[in-house]
Amino acid sequence: MIACLGGSLLMTGQNISSSQTINSPQLPKESLQLPATLDLELEQLLQRWYEGYEMRNGVPMAIAAPAPVPNVADSVYIRMMNHIPSGIRLSYNSVVRESIELYLFRRRPLLSAMMSLGDLYFPDIEAELDRHHLPLELKYLTIVESALNPSAVSPAGAAGLWQFMLPSARIYGLTVNSLVDERMDPVKGTEAACKMLSDLYRIYKDWWLVMAAYNCGPGNVNRALARAGGSGKTFWDIYNYLPRETRRYVPLYIGVYFAMHYAKQYGIRPRELGRTLATEYYQVKHEVSFSKIAELTGLSVEQIKTYNPQFRRGLVPWNAEPYQLRLP
Q1: What is the pLDDT of residue 14?
Q2: Mean pLDDT lowest for which of 111-115, 199-203, 249-253?
Q3: What pLDDT is attached to residue 49?
């Protein structure tokens, strides 16, 4: 099941031996980091999604602290990885190990928040992936892409749970204009991402290459494949020819998949302490401002923005087809 990368790659479908030595001289040593601001942003998002989130018995909740990284043999992680049910063949090497330890230990508070936000967003994401006959574990790409924040915008301008750039968003049917940005709509954004992932898989027939192309574009992947010697090459064969961010992308995906699967075994629990807000979609057939919706519902404008990040100017604009407004 697991490919162990050092001087050689194990055969497809073959488990890694627990005695396998990990040695990856072809992979440059790169420190994997995640922005410290993620924790605060997601804390604020959770506060708006959960009633009573900030207090337990009148006492402000404590945020879990990072934990020291233990000295664990590679064989332990390999054995655990071999027991993860996955339709995508996993790989293990020194960079993947660093990613696993990043989420399980160095950024435990972030993983705890991901578990809570996953309860909110993963059911709809899994349903859409299943509808497109895609592996359900692709849902974890949203953690690497956006930390499950539908309002996330990257420095390069990618937006939403799936971090679509503007040209790709329009190719896959998402409306983006001065008033509406459907990249930030979790449902429509997921539908577009499923179409794009399906198209990329038809090209590459390899999920690691699909993920690389999703992150940096097919052009970069094709150039990397050409530099590595042409067709038949794996992600790890073209690793050194990819942009730095893309080199981190696949290891981070494997690391977060591993960490989410084994989180409870490592004593990591979902962050929320309150009750999840139940929501419903309402059809809006005419222009209405968030302030007017707030006046009618008793919600704050910030809450309305949280549930409807696709509306950019604090209003639901007029449209030929009714917009869906999500509210408690």
Answers
A1: 42
A2: 111-115
A3: 61
CA–CA gap between residue 158 and residue 162 (Å, rounded): 8
β-pairing verdict for 323-327 and 280-284: antiparallel
Q: What six digits make up the tokens of 22?
A: 């990990």
Q: Are strands 91-92 and 3-4 parallel, antiparallel or unpaired?
A: parallel
C-alpha–C-alpha distance, residues 16 and 79, integer Å: 8
Question: Residues 93-126: pLDDT tens digits?
Answer: 999 999 999 999 988 888 888 888 888 899 999 9
Structure-block tokens of residue 273: 């302490």
- Map the chain to HEC letters: CCEECCCCCCCCCCCCCCCCCCCCCCCCCCCCCCCCHHHHHHHHHHHHHEECCCEECCEECCCCCCCCCCCCCHHHHHHHHCCCCCCCCCEECHHHHHHHHHHHHHCHHHHHHHHHHHHHHHHHHHHHHHHCCCCHHHHHHHHHHHCCCCCCECCCCCECCCCECHHHHHHCCCCECCCEEHHHCHHHHHHHHHHHHHHHHHHHCCHHHHHHHHHHCHHHHHHHHHHHCCCCCCCCCCHHHCCHHHHHHHHHHHHHHHHHHHCHHHCCCCCCCCEECCCEEEEECCCEEHHHHHHHHCCCHHHHHHHCCCECCCEECCCCCCEEEEEC
pLDDT of residue 128: 97
To the nearest 10°, report the CA torsion of 22, 34, 149, 132. -20
Bridge partners (DSSP) listed for residue 280:
327
pLDDT band at residue 40, thresholds of 50, 70 and 90?
low
Of 158, 223, 220, give the one whose Cα is nearest residue 193. 158
Statement: residue 177 has pLDDT above 90: yes
pTM for the structure as a whole = 0.83
